[in-house]
Amino acid sequence: MAIPNKGRLNERSIELITKAGINLGDDWGRKLNIKVPDLDLEVFFVRAQDIPIFIDSGAVDFGITGQDVTAEAGKELKNVLNLRFGQCRLSIAAPEESAIARTGKMEDGIRVATSFPYLTRKYFEDRGISAEIVFVQGAAEIMPQLGVSDAISDLVATGSTLRMNRLKEIDTVIESEASVFTTQKVLDDPDKKDRIGEIVDAIRSVLDADGRKYVMADVQKSRLKDVERIIPGIGGPTVVNIAGNDDWVAVQAVISGDDSYRVVSDLKKIGAKGILTMPIERLVE
Ligand SMILES: Nc1ncnc2c1ncn2[C@@H]1O[C@H](COP(=O)(O)OP(=O)(O)OP(=O)(O)O)[C@@H](O)[C@H]1O
Ligand SMILES: O=P(O)(O)OC[C@H]1O[C@H](OP(=O)(O)OP(=O)(O)O)[C@H](O)[C@@H]1O
Ligand SMILES: [Mg+2]
């Protein structure tokens, strides 16, 4: 498995796979590869941009990286899970005061600075515009001011970098999100497909738990109808007897984090005791 060793996708990738129960040990910040005990899994820490090539060539079987760099690599990879982070878009932008920004029209001869030459060239070719692509490693946003280009094609998330550099977004080339990628060849191998499926399921369980809480409370048996109204839950709340107490039961349920305030105050109103809410690490439905 390959995961980004630095940059925007690194931290969330590590957090996800750790929560999924993949133990990276203590050395992962320094070592570029970690053998995960018990799982027969080796994790490689490499640049997000290189991961599509490593997956495509079979150097690794699967990995986490952005849809943007995967599309830029021009490889036919299989996206097996969207990870709900690293959301951004590759966009064309031009200086606010330029004719391009005012009219939104892009004409032959336009010079576009980008670290995404493949996707940007394709974008202009598809529109029949002959553009000059100026490849830069980063900081594309400064290129119009430097006179290096008329426009840029770069990643936008909140838009604050564009605003700070007085650039106006003209059009989206592609939307992107971090995802788990593999190849059809790997999926055609039943053994690898099963093992990657298991890891992907574990990662999905972390995503599904996100924002949900586990609530527990003791209530009088006579108030159980009220509890069902307060906590619709996944298939309704679980009800457990309390040893030595025939009138009270313990109820437990998964709730959405947004509901937590309402659920707790409604449970209090019906006389519940020992109300507890807890974060959920994984949820396998
Ligand atoms: N502002 C952002 N918000 C969300 N995701 C982003 C953002 N910028 C980049 N990404 C995602 O993170 C991936 C890696 O970007 P990152 O900036 O970490 O790499 P880099 O620019 O090549 O490296 P570095 O910035 O460390 O030199 C991008 O390909 C994209 O999928
Ligand atoms: O729309 P925004 O929220 O401002 O995000 C967009 C910026 O984020 C990325 O850069 P990053 O911060 O990763 O720095 P980099 O240029 O070193 O990659 C990207 O290259 C943009 O410059
Ligand atoms: Mg960056």
TrEMBL record:
Asked if the Swiss-Prot or TrEMBL record annotates the protein with the keyword Transferase, the reply is yes
Pathway linked to the protein: Amino-acid biosynthesis; L-histidine biosynthesis; L-histidine from 5-phospho-alpha-D-ribose 1-diphosphate: step 1/9
**Protein localization:** Cytoplasm
Note whether DNA damage occurs among the keywords: no
Group of enzyme by EC: transferase
Q: Which GO terms describe its biological process?
A: L-histidine biosynthetic process
Q: Where in this chain does the record put each ATP phosphoribosyltransferase catalytic domain? A: 47-204
Question: What molecular functions are annotated in GO for this chain?
Answer: ATP binding; ATP phosphoribosyltransferase activity; magnesium ion binding
The reaction(s) annotated as catalysed by this protein in its Swiss-Prot or TrEMBL entry are: 1-(5-phospho-beta-D-ribosyl)-ATP + diphosphate = 5-phospho-alpha-D-ribose 1-diphosphate + ATP
Activity modulation? Feedback inhibited by histidine.
What EC number(s) are associated with this protein in UniProt?
2.4.2.17
- What are the record keywords, sorted? Amino-acid biosynthesis, ATP-binding, Cytoplasm, Glycosyltransferase, Histidine biosynthesis, Magnesium, Metal-binding, Nucleotide-binding, Transferase
**PROSITE patterns referenced in this protein's UniProt entry, alphabetically:** ATP_P_PHORIBOSYLTR
Q: Identify the residues that the record assigns to the Histidine biosynthesis HisG C-terminal domain, covering every copy.
A: 209-282
According to the record, the signal peptide region is: none
The family database entries (Pfam families) matched by this protein are listed as: HisG, HisG_C
Cofactors named for this entry: Mg(2+)
Can you list the GO cellular component terms from the UniProt entry?
A: cytoplasm
Q: Give the family, as the similarity comment puts it.
A: Belongs to the ATP phosphoribosyltransferase family. Long subfamily.
Say what the protein does: Catalyzes the condensation of ATP and 5-phosphoribose 1-diphosphate to form N'-(5'-phosphoribosyl)-ATP (PR-ATP). Has a crucial role in the pathway because the rate of histidine biosynthesis seems to be controlled primarily by regulation of HisG enzymatic activity.
Q: From the Swiss-Prot or TrEMBL record, give the protein name.
A: ATP phosphoribosyltransferase
Q: Which gene encodes it?
A: hisG
